[in-house]
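Incident review: delayed structure delivery

Summary: a single-chain prediction request sat in the queue longer than the usual turnaround. Root cause was a stuck worker, restarted by the on-call engineer. No data loss occurred. The affected request and its eventual output are reproduced below so the record is complete for anyone auditing the incident later.

Affected input:
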Amino acid sequence: MTDRWARAEERFRQREADRRYQRNDQAWEDYDDDTTVIPRYTDEDPDEPLPTGRSRRAAPQRAEQGEPRRGRPSSAQRAEDAEPRRSRGDGVGGGRAGGGPSRSGRTRSERGGSRAEEPRSESRSERQRSAPSRGRRSRAASRKAAERKKRRRNLWLIGAMFVVLFVGAAVFAGMKLVKMFGAPEDFAGPVGPLVVVQVHPGDTSNQIADAMQKKGVVASSEAFFQAAVRNSNMNSVQPGYYAIPSHSPSVQAVTALLGKDSRVGNLVVAEGRLLHDQQDVNTGNRKDGIYRKIADASCVGTGTNKKCITYEQLDAAGASADLNVLGVPSWAEQRVRDVPDRTRQLEGLIAAGTWDFDPSGTPEQILQQLVSASARSYESTGLLQSGAETKLNPYQTLIAASLVEREALPQDMGKVARVIVNRLEVNQPLQFDSTVNYALDRTEVATTDADRAKRTPWNTYAMPGLPATPISAPSLNALRAVENPEAGTWLYFVTVDKQGTTLFTESYSEHLRNIEKARQSGILDSGR
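Output delivered after worker restart:
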């Protein structure tokens, strides 16, 4: 009796376990998850009453008596529980009292055991559903991985650039500090050959120092600058060209720059000066021309090391047919090409004044510097815009200005310019003695009848109009006088004494009386 009640209670517990922990195999087959985590089962509400009216509070007592805890039985437990039932069963169709098999003729533990022993294979529908989603997830993951790699690479590149910039800035700052606090590089001597250095208008000590370093005079511009700021005479340095020994210690270089003999290529052209030398009839002295002045100013060095451009070299270079090489301005080119004597083609194109040229250049380069600078000086007076009243082109204006320079004192230049314009308007010969003397090697104020009768491209006694070229280097005052001549009707003038007193008239008879006054003063006496 007791055994029957024990078996009945055990069957009751087994049915309750099968009812409460039923497993839906179809739901597990349809469950789609990439994870391998098995869902965790938990007991139902512990306060739910058992079917027999018993409370779950009795579970601890059974646990103390060695009974297994309620929960999902394992496959081994189910197989163990099913073994007595099979041994007690009466065969197929046996009732529950006979201890036969459960509803399906096979115990739950057998189904569970078979599933535990045989691995579940994926169904075709599950593979079809999971393949696209897995592909999409794979491609998205690949893109994200590539983006992360690209971001990491960019960050590395940016970081490397910052490192390079930082290192470069640190090196530059370090070099600056070394230069700032360390002694600048300097030559110790001995000095080398002379080199020519140019000081431009407005140059500071820093700019002069840079020029000295580029020419190899000093080892560093810093050394020269430090020596220059300690010498107060640096403020007296004028723009121009200076001959300084190369490889000089900075202090010696500053001293050489300030020396009175260091300046070279400095030319002073007096008003009315001609290109070529002339000889005074009365004194026999040579009157140096512009070419001679340039040759003297071109010398660099002393003694056996002295180097100069010669007068003859300049004369030959000035006769060159390449006017561009000589710097002839466009407004004078055609008339210069037509000059009958090529050696005189640059006459008047080197203006009166003070000029600087590089003596280390060739004769052609020196002439180009001087002619170009003079053209700019002439044009500054408004030469290219003049001629509306005088009817003279720029080159003719320059010729007339050279005549004014040779014939008049500064106070009479406007009147002499007016005489020239008035005579040209009526085609009357100018009859200037200065145009007769221009073609002579030996000159004086007075001219002879033979000289005036000699026909040359410049003798205005022998022909009407202007000479072929300017006859001297005009000043800017003479040029302005021709551009804007003084108003008047004068046709004649003559200098009547050695003080330069000049009388103007429009009457020829009065002019003859003025000439007599000049004879009486002795100014017209000839030394020939």
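Verification: The two ends are 184 Å apart (CA to CA).
Action items: add queue-age alerting; document worker restart procedure.
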